[in-house]
Amino acid sequence: MSQLRWQVVAAATVGLALVLEALPAALLWLRAWRRRRQRRPRREVLFFPSQVTCTEALLQAAGAGPAAPLPGCGCSLPHTESALSRLLRALLAARASLELCLFAFSSPQLGRAVQLLHQRGVRVRVVTDCDYMALNGSQIGLLRRAGIQVRHDQDLGYMHHKFAVVDRKVLITGSLNWTTQAIQNNRENVLIMEDAEYVRLFLGEFERIWEEFNPTKYTFFPQKKRGH
Fold this sequence. Notes:
Elements: H1 2-38, E1 43-48, H2 56-64, H3 83-92, E2 97-102, H4 108-119, E3 123-128, H5 140-145, E4 149-152, E5 162-166, E6 170-174, H6 180-185, E7 188-193, H7 196-212
């Protein structure tokens, strides 16, 4: 009887030791789970025109990779956050996919960010307007030469959307054309949000247009567009 009691005590002691050993890891997991549950979906509004600030360090860091030290920049521009730098950060956060549906795209900084994502292995697809992609300064030709998939309209109306979807979970949309003129001079707005329902709707619209603008469906002599 005494031997059985000691065996029970020994087993209970071992069990308690195992529980105490696992307790810190369990507490860390529970804390992380609570943080994930309590994290609010992203809601951010950017207003333009943007202050002119340095974005070079941000783009260099994105090109160097997450393990590389942050590069410095000795230019004379302010090294502070701006509407443009926050938009760049939202784009550069992409890890798997980026869908762009843009009327006009001539910003060198935004174009460079998209190319960096492509080089990192992010799947990038672009829908744009055929008239504005042909203007001097458009980034569309550079994106195509980099190997990024681009499709454009061919009908009477303009492809006038201005939105992006990052990793199929973050929507970026608003009045802003992705041009230097709009970024530095126009009163514009951009909404960055995590909302599954809105992302689903915008992705559906992107996929619909992507299929509609399939090059196999182009006509040889399209009609001219009406005035903007």
